[in-house]
Design brief:
The chain has helices at residues 14-19, 29-36, 129-145, 171-179, 234-244, 270-285, 295-302, 323-337, 340-352, 357-371, and strands spanning 6-9, 88-91, 96-99, 106-110, 113-115, 161-165, 184-189, 202-206, 219-225, 245-256, 305-315, 379-388. Helix 3 (129-145) runs antiparallel to helix 8 (323-337) and helix 9 runs antiparallel to helix 10. It has a single domain, classed as Rossmann fold (3-Layer(aba) Sandwich). Mean pLDDT is 79; it is low at 1-31 and 33-102. The longest helix has 17 residues, at 129-145. The strands form three sheets. The protein has a seven-stranded mixed β-sheet with strand order 8-7-6-9-10-12-11. The protein has a three-stranded antiparallel β-sheet with strand order 1-4-5, with helices on one face. Strands 2-3 form a two-stranded antiparallel ribbon. By secondary structure, the protein is α/β, with parallel strands linked by helices. It is globular, with a radius of gyration of 20 Å. The chain has ten helices and twelve strands. It binds S-adenosylmethionine. Residues 116, 123, 135, 139, 166-168, 171-172, 188-191, 208-210, 225-227, 230 line the site of S-adenosylmethionine.
Amino acid sequence: MSSGPQVLVAGVSAENEVSGGRDAMMDVEEGLSTQIEGQSSASTIPGSAGGGGHRQDADVQMGDASTVAGSISDNDSAIGGVGSYAYVFMNPHNRFLILGSSFLNEIVEENGRTYHVYKDGKYMLPNDEVELNRLDMQNKMWSITLDQKLHLAPIGSNPQNVLDIATGTGIWAIDFADNYPSAHVIGTDLSAIQPASIPSNLTFELDDAEDDWIFPQKFDYIHGRTLATCFKSPLSVFKKAYEALAPGGWFEMQDMCLQRSDDGSMDGTSLKEWQEHVQKATAFTGVPWTNVPNYKRWFIEAGFEDVTEVTFRWPSNQWSGNRKERLLGAWTQAQIDNGMLESVSTRLFMMKLGWSQEKLDEFLAKVNADTKNPNIHAYSPVTVVYGRKPGSS
Ligand SMILES: C[S@@+](CC[C@H](N)C(=O)[O-])C[C@H]1O[C@@H](n2cnc3c(N)ncnc32)[C@H](O)[C@@H]1O
């Protein structure tokens, strides 16, 4: 295992690179419903609408929820092909688009994970297959949380220009473009990890949301999701969003905090210790994972009106008495079983806290066990904030 960052040329075509291991998700939602209704046998479940539809068939096992093996089929013809990345590079200063840049065939490999190359070292989580699958599971959790809605801001049915900052796998942007054919959607990210076959009203660009925004058009809606570990100054990004919106346009942030418990059941656990280490390590990076509770205030400070905050909970497992929260807890476990703790911790703990792989593995095994303990009532507070730029279009 290498200890420091290393730039490697992947040496494979983009298509091979992705199709080599990118798993799909099955829809576990119905599986969990089945389990909650008291039927626990394994079953094969067809995929449902939503969630991007650009996945290959695969099996996903559901931790301590019923073990449900199954597959989804890719029914979404608008999205089509599985497994090729869009290679689009944008020079942030003159919006110079480069297709198929060899630069993007490079990966940064560290301790068995890969990371973004553009602005190497800026973002602490990996961009490999394991992480991309986890992000799409997280997308499912957002869908459940928001009752299948893609946004809470009242944007109307006819948005024209839409921006998704730090789009990740692009799964939200793809769903949005499919649902709003009127819109031209742009998704930006530090990593070129988005699929190539996408709706015709969507483009992806490699871009750092903390750089100057030089889009020639004004947007009707700007969206950012699960970005708590991304920006040194979220307020300055919110101000950029304000400037880039048309009068009357909406900005929405959907995000989550580190876990907590209201009844003290997390106290003294390895899970609690993990949160503290993550908090310390993210503070060292200059992007502390503690900013989300400030979002509403920063929206107002940036100039937005009609600022609304809505909160939810993502429990660590199925301890909650609330059915929707139990479903979300099962998905949290699915994420953990698919490497969430390792994705969050590997670079942060090894690079910022100086931990060895061995120490990290031993510790994460204990944290993992705590996440599965129904007597530890941990949850991530989840927050959606949206606000409108004054004026009308
Ligand atoms: C946790 S993922 C969320 C992805 C997506 N928004 C979603 O909800 O599925 C965070 C993403 O932000 C990207 N990112 C981090 N810092 C960024 C920055 N300064 N500018 C643009 N993208 C960034 C990462 O590459 C990663 O894809």
